[in-house]
Write a structure and sequence with these properties.
alpha+beta; two-stranded parallel sheet; 2 strands; globular
């Protein structure tokens, strides 16, 4: 689970992204942001379906650049 969820949601929204509040895996999502990998359904399903799994530091770096950075 991502700590400071509201903070990171505000970064995503300010950069033009969208956020889902579905607690389980959402097949329409394109990315999953987490602070550490945990073996749960959401992470495993994201990996299995080929979604990008990003560390929350990605959002911190993107905020500094004022756009989603290329990884």
């Amino acid at each position: 689970m991502l700590q400071d969820r509201e903070y990171y949601e505000s970064i995503i929204l300010s950069l033009g992204g969208e956020v889902t509040d579905i607690p389980a895996f959402d097949p329409s999502a394109t990315h999953l942001v987490c602070s550490r990998p945990v073996r749960n359904e959401k992470l495993l399903a994201s990996i299995a379906s080929g979604k990008w799994v990003l560390h929350n530091s990605y959002l911190d770096a993107s905020q500094k650049e004022n756009c989603f950075i290329q990884v």
